[in-house]
Structure formats: structure tokens, C-alpha cells
Design the sequence.
């Protein structure tokens, strides 16, 4: 979907490697956020994004008020 | 490896099914739109290596499992006589040993080795591509085409005989056959019980045989089917000699058994001119020799009979035949210079109690008057013969006659049979020459049947002559000079004794030594009259001459007319009466070992198969091994196909 590249793959054969590649990516992102003192939140696409954004903004508000 | 159901091997095409399915599956795929290409590309790169290998192993296991199943269904054979060889043979030349020893049953089997060999050969030929079959049997030595392996066991030229076999002659015949005819790819199969006397390793012709095999125009394989298992529970009987003496028949018999077990009482049946009697003999070791005297009555006709023991694992050696002629007195000629020696020699050769013995004294000048045909023993106490008399004497000995040669009183330079008399020696005063050493198992001074020794130490001599020439020493004086020597000439024997039965020479006349020596020599010479009625199965003497008809006289068994020439029995051949027996060598169990076979066939490529007689088939089916292999491949495939446990990935 990113481009027109087509790959023939056997799902049974590549499933584990695919998951491992994803886990490695997520681990790398997490480590990078930690290194730059950034907050890290792992959100999946099946969660309600309005609620997530609301909670995030709400959590940050008291910090600004104390200033 | 060969197969019983060779046509089913076409099913091996089914082994390609997993490969075909795999290739078809590769063409069938579902298109899925995918966003996270980075991970997908990474995953496909990772799986390329070992995953592909795993998949190939799974594919191979499936293919091999199907192939193993097809092989198992085709019923493969291993270990056969024509094992692992090519099936593309044009001619098989079967050399069959039909000797009497091949009738021995193999241990654990009720069929003879010969029958077992024929069955094995027939089964092996069934697995080949219908090659031409040529049979050369050991009895006739004639090559004959066999139309089908199925008739092999029915041919008269494969039936049992009482003959011996000559394997070198058979292989030579096979080589000649291949050279004379275009036999194509040929195999020579030898079926034999590996008896040493049949293979004759000492024969010089083996070098020529090996060269002949190597030089054959097309590649010829030699296969040896060895049926060398030792006999079990076998008892053989043999008539060593038979002679008629004053109204009775004296048989010299020998019993041989395969095991040296404890004492056994063996029932023996004697049949003389159709009248049967029986008694028992106790045997303790592996062989036992004894005499049997059978009354013949007053009629002076020729006659015949047989001696037999109960049937066992080899029927062929349970019987031995004999025949005899009319009674005639034993005749000894004493060619002598005269004097005391002649008297003692006459007495020793025809003792007063021996009515059937006659001795005739003549001078050397009258030696041409000897009736050679009717004489058993010639005693020559004179200068050695020369000229026509020497030739006649030699011919007499060659045809089985016996000669006892004693020293002349005067010196003589004449040589006879390569022997001559040397100087006369006299013992020192008051001393004697005595016998120090003599052969107790062979020769005229041998021990009696019960082990009784000849009282040789009693012999004392004061005068003797040395014996010059090459001969076998049978007894020696205490100063190592020869006392008795032997020269074997043709079928007969000449004995030289270095002193005289004359009290001016020795006490040889005391009869302790002289009587047994002379009587044994007479017996030896007499044997040729008995041997006139004896022949060996398969020998020239046992064949019917032109114009002679063959009729079996004994009541032991009936003969197949086509095989009669090779069978033991009492036969009338024209005017001749013959007791035909198996050769002595067939009772002597000496085997050619595998190492000896290899050295005998040095430089020749051959394959040896040993039939121990414990299996119905030379070949073993190994379909079970292929089924197990199939199972292993399927289990391997199942294990490789197992999905690894998927670890739940934490968000």
C-alpha cells in the first residue's frame, strides 16, 4: 500500500519473523523516547482516540497551572 | 537387489506427487493489501535461509516416504545367489557337482545338498531376464541346453550319482564352451560341497584355468555356491577289499561316522547272493575297521552281494558292494639261489595249514617260466633281474602284483627299479644288528587290527646287505641302516629286505617277522584278483564297452537306466561281473576353505555364496525395512511440520 511493491510470502513461514521485527521496532521507539525524556504511550488503533487525547491533555493541564 | 514384483516399480512416479503439489501451491496465492511493508520485507528476508531448508526437508521426507512404500510393495530381495548383480545376463552355465557326497542332507534340512542347490539355482534364475541355461554336470561332463529352469530338477543329468567330481575339469569345459560359442554376457555358476578331492588344489591346471577365465572375450562372472556344511548323524560303510579263501568270503570293512561320540552298536546287514544276515558292531571313534567272514558253501561259482547300515542323512554311503570269482589257490613263486633261505621262504608263503596256498621254487635262470597271471607274490632272492624277466616282473607289479626282494649271497651291480644291493656288512664279534625303528601303521610290519605288535625287536642279524636307491624306509637297524624299504610301482608294491632267513645271516627264519611279512605281501598281491571284480563309479572300467549290455544283479535298489553308468551296485557288463562303488575320497570329509578358494582363484574375480542349508530361499525379502523407512520419513515430516508455539506479543 505504501507503493506498488508486491511480495510473495508464506504467512505461516514469516509470521514469527514479522512479529519479531515489529517488537524490535517498538522496543527501539520506546528506548529513543526514554533517551530524550519524552513521554511514551503505546496506543493501538482499536482504542478510542478522542478519549486518549482528552486524557492526555487533561493529565498535562495541572502542570501548566502550577507554573 | 532384485524384486519379486518388478512391474510395481512403475509406481515410483507417485513419488513426484508432493513436488507437483508444492509447485501448484506456489502458483496459488491471495493478494492482500499491506501497509507495514517495512516489517513484511524484513520478515521475508529473515525466513529465506533456514525456513526454505526446512521446507525442502519436508518435501524430501514426503517424496521418500512414497518411494519407500513403492519399494516395499515391489518386494525387494537381498542376499540371493545372483545378488546385486546385473539382471542383464545372456547365458548362465551351471556346473553341477553330482558326486556321492552331494547327497548329504544339509543340517536342518531333509533335502540333499544337490537338490538344495538346484532349487536355489532355479529361484535365482527366476529373478533374471530369462537367460539361456547350459548345464554341465560332473558325471557326464557334457554341456547341454536346458529349455527352462523349471525342468532342471527333473533331468536325469541332475540326478544323484555315486561318482566323484572334478571341478577343474568342469570349469575348463565351461571356458571351452564360452570360447566355442557366442554366449554374450555369461555367468558361470559352480554348485559344490567344496570337497577338497573334487577341487584338487594341488593340480597344476588351476593357473591355466585362471588365465582362461581372465582371457574370455566378454566379461564373465564366476559364482560359487558353496554347500560345505559338515555332515551330521551320518554313518558310512565301505568294503575295503574282498577275497575268497577256501569256502568263505573275507571282507575287509570300514565304518566311518561324522561325529566321534560315545560307543555305539551299529546294525550291519550282509547280503550274499540274495541271502541276508545281520549282526552288530560296536564303534567307539570316528572310524572302525574290521573283518567279516561269510561262508560261501561248496559251490565254486562267482557271486556278489552288499553290506549296508541303516539309512541316515546320506543314503549313498550306507551301502557298499562286492563281487568275487571262483576259488583258486594263492600262488607264490620263489626265485632263489637255493639253500636254507628257500626252505624258510617256501614255508612262510605256503604254511602246512594253508591248503589254498601254493609256493613254487625256481632258479633265476628259469624265471621266464613264471605264470605271472595267476601269481600273487614273487619272492626274488637272487641277483636283481634284468632283461625280459625284469620287464615281466615290472609289468606284474604294475598290475597289482607284490614282490619281496631279498639280497643275493654274492655282490651284484645290477640295478632294478632304481634300486641295487650295496656292500655286505657283518656285525662286530658277539654283537648283533637289531631293529631300532619300524613303521607300525603302514607296511608289512604294521600292527594288527587290534593293535597287536609284530615282535620285531626279536630279530637279530649278523649279516646284511645295504639297500641303495630311492625308496620309502619302513624299518631301520639300530645303526640307521635300512632294513625294509618299499617302492610303489603302478598298482603294486616291491619290498626290499636287507637280510636273509638263513641262520648264517639272521634269525629271520624264526617266523616272528618273516611269516607276517610274507603273508601280508601275498594278501596285497591277491587283492588284484579281487580287484578284478571291483570298479569305481564313473571310471572307465565301470563303463560298458561296445557290445556289452548292462544288467544290475544286486537286490539293494533299482536303477534308472539313464543314470545307471554312474550308480553303485553289482553289475553284469557283458561277460564281466563288477561291484561298482563310490570312490574312497567321497567318504573323506576334507573341505576347501574360503581362504584356499581365494588363493586357488587368485587373479580371478568371483563371488562366493555360502548356503548353510537353513533357509528355503537364498534371498531374503527386505520389504519390512522399506516400510520402517517409510515410517521414519513420515514421522520426520510430521515433526518438521509442527508449528512452533507462538509467543503472545505484548503491546
Sequence:
Amino acid at each position: 500500500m505504501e507503493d506498488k511493491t508486491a511480495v510473495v510470502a508464506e504467512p505461516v513461514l514469516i509470521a514469527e519473523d514479522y512479529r519479531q521485527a515489529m517488537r524490535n521496532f517498538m522496543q527501539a521507539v520506546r528506548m529513543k523516547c526514554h533517551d530524550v525524556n519524552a513521554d511514551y504511550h503505546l496506543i493501538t488503533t482499536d482504542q478510542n482516540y478522542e478519549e486518549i487525547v482528552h486524557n492526555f491533555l487533561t493529565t498535562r493541564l495541572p502542570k501548566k497551572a502550577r507554573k | 537387489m532384485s524384486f519379486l514384483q518388478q512391474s510395481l516399480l512403475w509406481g515410483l512416479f507417485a513419488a513426484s506427487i508432493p513436488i507437483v503439489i508444492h509447485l501448484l501451491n506456489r502458483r496459488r496465492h491471495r493478494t492482500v493489501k499491506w501497509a507495514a511493508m517495512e516489517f513484511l520485507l524484513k520478515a521475508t528476508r529473515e525466513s529465506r535461509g533456514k525456513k526454505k531448508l526446512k521446507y525442502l526437508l519436508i518435501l524430501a521426507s514426503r517424496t521418500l516416504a512414497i518411494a519407500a512404500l513403492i519399494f516395499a510393495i515391489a518386494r525387494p530381495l537381498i542376499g540371493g545367489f545372483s545378488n546385486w548383480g546385473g539382471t542383464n545376463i545372456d547365458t548362465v552355465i551351471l556346473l553341477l557337482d553330482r558326486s556321492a557326497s552331494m547327497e548329504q542332507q544339509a543340517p536342518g534340512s531333509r533335502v540333499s545338498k544337490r537338490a538344495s542347490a538346484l532349487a536355489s539355482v532355479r529361484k535365482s534364475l527366476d529373478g533374471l531376464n530369462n537367460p539361456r541355461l547350459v548345464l554341465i554336470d560332473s558325471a557326464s561332463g557334457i554341456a547341454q541346453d536346458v529349455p527352462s529352469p523349471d525342468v532342471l530338477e527333473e533331468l536325469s543329468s541332475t540326478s544323484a550319482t555315486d561318482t566323484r567330481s572334478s571341478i577343474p575339469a568342469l570349469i575348463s569345459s565351461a571356458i571351452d564352451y564360452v570360447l566355442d560359442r557366442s554366449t554374450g554376457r555369461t555367468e558361470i555358476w559352480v554348485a559344490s560341497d567344496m570337497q577338497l578331492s573334487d577341487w584338487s588344489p594341488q593340480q597344476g591346471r588351476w593357473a591355466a584355468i585362471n588365465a582362461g577365465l581372465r582371457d574370455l572375450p566378454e566379461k564373465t562372472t564366476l559364482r560359487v555356491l558353496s554347500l560345505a556344511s559338515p555332515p551330521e548323524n551320518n554313518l558310512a560303510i565301505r568294503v575295503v577289499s574282498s577275497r575268497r579263501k577256501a569256502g568263505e568270503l573275507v571282507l575287509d570293512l570300514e565304518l566311518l561316522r561324522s561325529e566321534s561320540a560315545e560307543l555305539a552298536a551299529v546294525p550291519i546287514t550282509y547280503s550274499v547272493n540274495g541271502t541276508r544276515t545281520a549282526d552288530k558292531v560296536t564303534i567307539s571313534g570316528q572310524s572302525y575297521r574290521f573283518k567279516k567272514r561269510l561262508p560261501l558253501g561248496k559251490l565254486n561259482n562267482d557271486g556278489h552281494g552288499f553290506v549296508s547300515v541303516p539309512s541316515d542323512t546320506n543314503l549313498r554311503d550306507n551301502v557298499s558292494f562286492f563281487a568275487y570269482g571262483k576259488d583258486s589257490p594263492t600262488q607264490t613263486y620263489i626265485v632263489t639261489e637255493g639253500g636254507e633261505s628257500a626252505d624258510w621262504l617256501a614255508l612262510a608263503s605256503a604254511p602246512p595249514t594253508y591248503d589254498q596256498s601254493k609256493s613254487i621254487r625256481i632258479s633265476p635262470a628259469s624265471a621266464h617260466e613264471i605264470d605271472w597271471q595267476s601269481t600273487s607274490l614273487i619272492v626274488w632272492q637272487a641277483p636283481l633281474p634284468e632283461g625280459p624277466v625284469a620287464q615281466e616282473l615290472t609289468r606284474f607289479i604294475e598290475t597289482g602284483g607284490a614282490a619281496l626282494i631279498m639280497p643275493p649271497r654274492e655282490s651284484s651291480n645290477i640295478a632294478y627299479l632304481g634300486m641295487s644291493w650295496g656292500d655286505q656288512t657283518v656285525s662286530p664279534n658277539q654283537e648283533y644288528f637289531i631293529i631300532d625303528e619300524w613303521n607300525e601303521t603302514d607296511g608289512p610290519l604294521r600292527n594288527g587290527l587290534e593293535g597287536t605288535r609284530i615282535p620285531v625287536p626279536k630279530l637279530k642279524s649278523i649279516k646284511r646287505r645295504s639297500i641303495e636307491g630311492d625308496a620309502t624306509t619302513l624299518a631301520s637297524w639300530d645303526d640307521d641302516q635300512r632294513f625294509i624299504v618299499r617302492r610303489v610301482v603302478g598298482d603294486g608294491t616291491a619290498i626290499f629286505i636287507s637280510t636273509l632267513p638263513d641262520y648264517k645271516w639272521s634269525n629271520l627264519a624264526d617266523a616272528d617277522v618273516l611269516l607276517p611279512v610274507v603273508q601280508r605281501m601275498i594278501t596285497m598281491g591277491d587283492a588284484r584278483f579281487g580287484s578284478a571284480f571291483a570298479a569305481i563309479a564313473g571310471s572307465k572300467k565301470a563303463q560298458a564297452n561296445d557290445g556289452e549290455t548292462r544288467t544290475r544283479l544286486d537286490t539293494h535298489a533299482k536303477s534308472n537306466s539313464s543314470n545307471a553308468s554312474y550308480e553303485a551296485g553289482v553289475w553284469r557288463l557283458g561277460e564281466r561281473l563288477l561291484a561298482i562303488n563310490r570312490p574312497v575320497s567321497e567318504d573323506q570329509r576334507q573341505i576347501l576353505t574360503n581362504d584356499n578358494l581365494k588363493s586357488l582363484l587368485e587373479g580371478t574375480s568371483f563371488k562366493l555364496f555360502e548356503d548353510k542349508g537353513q533357509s528355503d530361499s537364498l534371498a531374503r525379502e527386505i520389504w519390512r525395512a522399506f516400510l520402517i523407512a517409510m515410517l521414519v520419513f513420515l514421522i520426520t515430516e510430521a515433526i518438521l511440520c509442527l508449528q512452533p508455539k507462538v509467543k503472545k506479543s505484548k503491546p
